[in-house]
Amino acid sequence: MNKIFFVLSFLFYCSISIAQDTLATAEPVSEFVKYAEKDIKIDSDTVKAKTFKKDFKKKYKDSDFVYEVKPPEKNAWDYFKEWLASIFRSIFTFKDPDASFNLVAIFLKVIAAIIVIFVIYLIVKAIIAKDGQWIFGKNAHKKTVYYSDIEKNIHLLDFEKLIKESIASGERRIAIRYYYLWLLKVMAQNHYIKWDIEKTNSDYLYELQRPAHREEFMYLSYLYNHIWYGEFEIDETTFIKTENRFKKSIKTFSNE
User: Distance between CA atoms of 137 and 167, rounded to whole angstroms?
Assistant: First the structure.
């Protein structure tokens, strides 16, 4: 056992001695590397300057190149709606912040509907009045001039006779015109209106005091304008219904 230990110790000692001798004889490593002038390579390639086209920015104005979405600029209409919404918020209590803007949208739709209804009313009013004669044809004004002498002398005319002659000759439209002038004559005689050839149907309508009379005259004026200025012939059924309505009104204004 002692012999083995002695051999191992001897070998270990020899290995340490050899290692020290190797390190002592090794050459030191140089810290710097030296190059000669011939080792330096000169870059002889030419450099070309790159230029951009003048309109190169137009290519990048497409929506694909927009990385930041900017909110749209507000106009006068947007500021008006915000101002209106602030008024509603001061009057009402809203849990939802957008509720005031929803109320503004409803309010504006209602206003738009009122405007449309008012425009329709003006159109109907123009139809009833003489100013609306152009709606029913280009020759409407000519027909009014042709029968202007009859309008000037409605108090002297026998409308029953004229109506019978018109129906016998098949001129139903002219008969309806006579019925309308006869109605005006009766209304003037009984002091519902003041007859004047320069007045329009709307003028006579405003002179009537009772709502029922105004409603009746408005409807008859509509029938008259539709039939007379419409420039189309009416069938017998429509004529009889219209004739009965005029007869009833003439009788009503005559007896009251």
Answer: 23
**Tokens at 34, concatenated:** 């030296």
What is the distance between the alpha carbons of residues 119 and 168, in angstroms, rounded to a whole number?
A: 41
Chain centroid to CA 116: 12
The tens digit of pLDDT for each residue in 33-75 reads 666 666 677 777 777 777 777 776 777 667 666 666 666 777 7
**Whole-number Å distance between alpha carbons of 223 and 136:** 13
Close Cβ partners of 129 (under 8 Å, ≥ 6 residues apart): 200, 201, 202
**Residue 117: Cβ within 10 Å count:** 10
Helices (H), 169-231: 172-189, 201-207, 211-228
Tokens linked to 235: 């069938």
**Distance from C-alpha of 150 to C-alpha of 177, rounded to nearest angstrom:** 10
Q: How many residues does the chain have?
A: 256
200: which 2 tokens? 């329009």
Q: Which residues of 77-100 are buried (b: 16+ CB within 10 A; e: fewer)?
A: eeeebeebbeebeeeeeeeeeeeb
d(CA 37, CA 66): 54
